[in-house]
Amino acid sequence: NAPATKVAAVRAYGGDITFCESTQAARESTLEALCARTGASFIPPYDHPDVIAGQGTTALEIAGQLDPAPDYLLTPVGGGGLLAGCAVASKALLPDTQVIGAEPAGADDALRSFNSGQWQPQLAPATVADGLRTALGQLNFALIRAHVDDILSADDAAIVYATRLVWTRMKLVIEPSAAVGLAVVLSHPRRFAGKRVAIVFSGGNVDLDKLPW
Fold it and tell me: Is there a contact between 183 and 102 (Cβ–Cβ < 8 Å)?
């Protein structure tokens, strides 16, 4: 069930795609068989220390470019690598900045996990932000618990509005998953009013001829 635009983009870059059933068990078994057959090495998309560190360089860039530092830094959260990496880096480089995860209300396992203090499974995610339907990684959850200040959610109506706002006012083509941070800010105006807010837009795979709403 991967979005057609993302499949097309991988093929355009010369990648070979192997499809499987849309379950975590099927993905893992297919991956294991593929690596055994080809000798390929698995690079986790988010739940690995090196990947988390790499994604944390986003906060490094923000720290180097913004003066004064932002009051808040928001990133989308799906698997949690970007949020975890930015949170770890921010606590060292931007100690006065609050780091907040932004999540679709229809795929809120990170929010539930954060609030309960226990890792919660993703339950039938249903959101226009397809890139954030991924389950929160358990390594990332430990880092998020230790370094993230809060996680907030926004519903799909707010996400669609934020996506369109960025398209029309900022002239940037982002996908709905990238707009969740802005959607959260717009959905919680009292919290962010008058504050300096840095929002990470991550993801630009969208088929403008077949919008998902």
Answer: yes
